[in-house]
Predict the 3D structure of the following.
Amino acid sequence: MNISAILGSILKLLYSYLFCLFSEKRIATYLSAIGLKFLSTYRSCGTYIAFLTILITVYLVTPNYISFGYLFFLLFWIIGRQLVEKMRKRLWFPLKVYAIVVFIFIYSLSIFSSFETWLSRIINLYPNLGYNPQASLLENGWESLAVLIVMQLYSYERRQSRHNGLGDPHQLEHGSCSFLRRLSIWHGDKILYLSLFYASLSPISAFGFLYLLGLVTCSTLPKVSRVPSKLFLIYTGILVLTEYLFQMWGKLAEMCPGQRHSTLSLFLGFQLLKPGFWGLESGLRGKVLVIVACTLQYNVFRWLERMPSTLVNIGKWEEPCPLFISNEDKPPDISVYTEESSPSKSSPKRRAVTSNSWPSLSSGMFQGHPPVSSETEPQGSGTRKYSFEYIWGSSRESNKWNKKRILALRKERFDMQKDTLKIYLKFWIENLFNLFGLEINMIALLLVSFAVLNAISILYIVSLAACILLDRRVIRKFWSIFVFSFATVLTLEYLVIWKNLVPWNHDVPSETNMHCHDCWLCWRSSKLYFNYCKNCWLGFIVDDHRMLISYYVVFMLACFKLRSDKLYGFSGSRTYHQMISQHKNASVWRDLSFETKSLWTLLDYLRLYCYCHLLDLVLALILITGTLEYDILHLGYLGFALVFFRLRLEILKKKNKIFKFLRMYNFALIVLSLAYQSPFLGDFSAGKCETIDYVYEVIGFHKYDYGFRITSRSALVEIVIFMLVSLQSYMFASQEFDYVSRYLEAEQIGALVREQEKKAAWKTAQLQHIRKCEEQKHQRNLQVEKMKSEMLNLQIQLHSLNSTGNYDNAGPGNEGLRRRRTSSLSSNRGTATPENEEGFIRRQDLNNSTDSLFHFEMHDSPRSIKTESSRAAESAQNSMDEITELEEKGANSAFLDLGRREKGKGQAKGNPLKSAVQLIGNGVSRVQSFGNQAVTNLVSFLNIAQEDSDSNDYYSSAEDGLYDEIESQNIRLQSQNIRVERLDRTMSLQSGSEKTISEAASPQIGRIFRYIWSQIRSNNDFVCYCCFFLGFLWNFSLLSMVYLAALFLYALCVNTGPSYIFWIIMLIYTEVYILLQYLYQIIIQHCGLTIEWSLLQKLGFPCHKITSSFVVGTWPLFLVYLLTLLQSSITAKDGEWMSVTELKSFKRRVLYQEEVLVSSGWSGRVQRLLLPVKNVTRMIIRILCRYWKSLTQGAESPPYFVQLSMEVKSWPDDGIQPQRVESAVTKLLKNVHDERCKEKNPNSLHSASRVRVQSIERSQEDPNVALAVFEVVYASPLTDCPPKEWYKSLTPAADVAKEILTAQHLGLVEEIGFPYPILSVIGSGKREIDLYAYIFGADLTVFFLVAIFYQSVIKHNSQFLEVYQLEDQFPKEFVFILMILFFLTVLDRVIYLCSFATGKVLFYLSNLFLFTYSVTNYAWYMESSRLHAAGLALRAIYLTKAVSLALQAIQIRYGIPHKSTLYRQFLTSKVSQVYYLGFRLYRALPFLYELRCVLDWSCTTTSLTMYDWLKVI
């Protein structure tokens, strides 16, 4: 036991000894590595630590000879290293020796008092040597001790580095540090030039002028030149030493302020600095910055020497090295580590990837994101077939493509766009001045022009004009002249400010104690300082250093461009070669075509938005600028904005051909504004109208304050407008905008085609509905005739039976009657209940009502057009399906809720927290289900069809793919739900189904928003009509009355509806109206002028100034302009229906001139001059006649379609040839025209009617019937054949249908051998509506409003129905007005009962004129004290009457109802609470029902007496 214990202890001791031995070695190795790391770090920055320590030491002491020695040896070290271009021991060792000597000397003075006493007799120790005898050794020796320690550390580092063989500290690294070094290499010279300029300004003197002169001279040298850094470092070192010596010897030389030679020191630039650290730092700051910049240049050249030769550019004017380095550009010694980390065999693949970037991007995308197809494909060829070349070669998109493949291609496109964007950004950053140097200089010239505001700004603005007008190659050739002129300006202005600082050259009078930037304020009061301000504007006096900064910025930017111009091409740029290698992938940025829209990414849509809507931003800014001030120049901005908004689509097509005028106006305004800053032009006006200077203010010229200020009169507005306009012009001139222009054109063409197809489908469905109604009407007529004939036979038989008296004899008629009765009973057996009979009667009434009411609108699609029976059947089936589905869902939800409650009860006891979480989750899911149900109900309530969203071309294919995935998930979840047996599985499936339902609700929300937007677009014309009327109610003026006339005389009356030309005319009129209002405000805003002319107020010009914004003061006009602009853009995008030859016929009618044989004398010349006037007058008369006929007789709305029903017993194999049918119909129409016109007028110039095949399809009801739809190209007159061809029919489709029926009646169809028998011809249909009840209700409301508010409007009295106190009766005017309103209502009823269209039009026009004149007259002469209340009542009355007028206009538009439909009771047509209350009110009003009965009986041709009529009614 003892031996084992001893052996164990020995082993433990041995183990501990070995462990300590190895631990000490590891610790020593680790500490040595840390030491080497610290040594390497200190080697990198030890030199600059020594520099900074010595400089701070010199700053902290009072200037003396010892600190001067430190400064001298430090500058010797720095300058020597810069000149030798290498660190030598003989450069820094003298400073170390000097520090040792100084330390020994200070220590000796502190130890040996006798030595101190002896030396103090020879020299003053404290000021001259910096030694304070009263201070301690540490206080006197810390300076030399700090320098000695730093130099000892530096010498130790040098020895250790040489002993350990450490590399050069300037070895190039990779990463952020390497990028910062390359950035310093690129911009080291700029830092040097900036420090030189700062040194020249601190202070402005002879020494500073040498700095500036050297800056101007060396700024055009290449970057690789080392002369500037060496030269300026030597010069700065000498200046620092002399400046330091001046602090010690200045008083002895009598050069301090107040002494004899102080002017010389001011001339040279010597300054007596404040004592202390910050005094020396501020005085030597400029020189030290130059030394730092030169030291940075030394490091830059050292970094370039250590950089691999493959990264160094050898060109004289090229950049020394690339700014951005890719992985391929890394040196081999750096890339070794990457090769070791990856297999060696992967290097060929990497080289292949770098050589061909397209496969690498696609393969990388599919490696990172596996393909969505079920089969795995190879990396190489499998992904190559998904390239864009496979897609872009197609002419149009196909809806049958694989949506997942489209999503993959879109993802690939987005990745490629990001990669190419990174490369392009690097290229643009590296070649900034090569690409955009001219633009940068233009911006600088503009900014500096408004910063200096003197004669030199005119020079700069002239240079800017040259940059705009001249070609880039010419500017590049003569750019050195610009640089020389800018350098001359900088030098001369420096001399000027230097001259003004020297006392003996200061020739300014003593009373002018002011500055140049105060001239803009002093001119407001007097002209005492005119000469001083004149010299300031001419540049002879400069008293602000910021002026020199502006000149320096212009000069340096011009030098940078000059240096970039000397570099021809980008052959030496690595990013350029990378960009060239990506030229295949660059097509993903250029391709903004309509065919590849499904592949667009977010970046593509963002680019398109910027290209299309930057113009809107520019014009909006110009519009806002135009309303800031009331002057002529801002009026020009406002006019440009209004006109260019209207010409927006035209500008996007023609680009700078139109937009250049705005740029010219803006630039001319800038030049004139800068010229007006001269003291020779104008002055600050005090608002006196008799001075000429006030005219400048009316025009818009103002004296700018010094500097940039954000006000309505500052130059910042013009600068921003110039930049945005220049940017828009640059975008217009770019090649990428050509792709955008082609896309916009293709999109507009597609929108036009879709709108034309939509209108054609609507018209075809309308004709189909008319044909069905005609067939039903024909069948009912046959049934009625058959019943009449049977009743007549029965009556004859009964009469014969009564005459013979044989009652028991049953004739064949009775047998037939019994047979019919039994057959009818058998056919109706099981359905002859009262409910069925009532339903049958209702269906018959419903079919009868379809003959008079045609429920079609322009915006309805043909898919939604169904018969009433089919709609009823579908609604019943849908309701049954919904009930069944709701019952199933209710049962399932009840079962699931029951299971959830049972499970919740079981788990609530075990885990309350889990039950609470489940409760919250159930609540969230329930709220989510309620939200989804609300969205679904909203979709069903709005009746948004599914096919509308599917047919939308703008619907994203990504959303389609998501929808398909959701549907597939729903199917899988439903199948799992059927097979599930356990309740836990059911609950999980329910949560998954709720999630998919919530995901499926998002497309429905998109459908809702698209439906809302479509409704806004489709009803924007109605909003425009309301704004037209609002513009008139705004001020009841003559100019706003044009909106009223356009609304009630054209827009609401014309059957075709307002055209695109109408909206453009109204838009132009609104622009003129706004500009006139603005011009009137210019007149009254200045000089305090008020125009008391009643005609101006009647025209709509206010008599007072607009104190708020002009947009707020005239907001109805801007609202009309905005909505009219939106409507015109919608109309231009949707387009109007125009037949094939309509445009040619229009040009022929407009340009048609009558050939007149005239003599060559005065009479012939007069006739030739009057001939265009005569033709225009005829055209106007024809338009007015056509307008009147369209109101009184009605007109068709385009497109003009005719439908032929043809019997085709055997369909051809290749279908019916459209050319054959079209030629047959054309021949048929020609024969009819010849039969009609050759006998009446053989010299007729009219041609026969012409049609064009629109579609031919088989009827769905009868397969042996073909439905051919023709578009009417031209319709010849039916009645006569006038000798002039200016005729255009109002009902071309009906006329052509009548011609075809006439030909069929004359037998011309069989004569020409028409290919198929014609069954029916449907020409046109008119929607018959009856709005009299609404019109009467509006008129009755007007009657009561006038009765209530008569006193407040006419008599300006707020009392209700005030009577005369003496006569005890109503006012005569009040009674007359009510009688007029009553008789107008009676007259309207009479015209309605007579169905007199012409009378209705005349009544409508007279009614419009009467009420408009009355209301306008009352508004003009209304007292100002009662203006608000009376004006509100007047507007309410006219608004109600406008509703009546609008309804009458719509009634005229669709035609007066037929007499057979006039006697319906409107209030009993439906059963509802509203109709019930309306009927009770109608019967409660006294004499209203009786008056209606009397009028109906008086205007109706009937044999009934008045008493019988009342019983019938």
User: Anything to note?
Assistant: The radius of gyration is 48 Å.
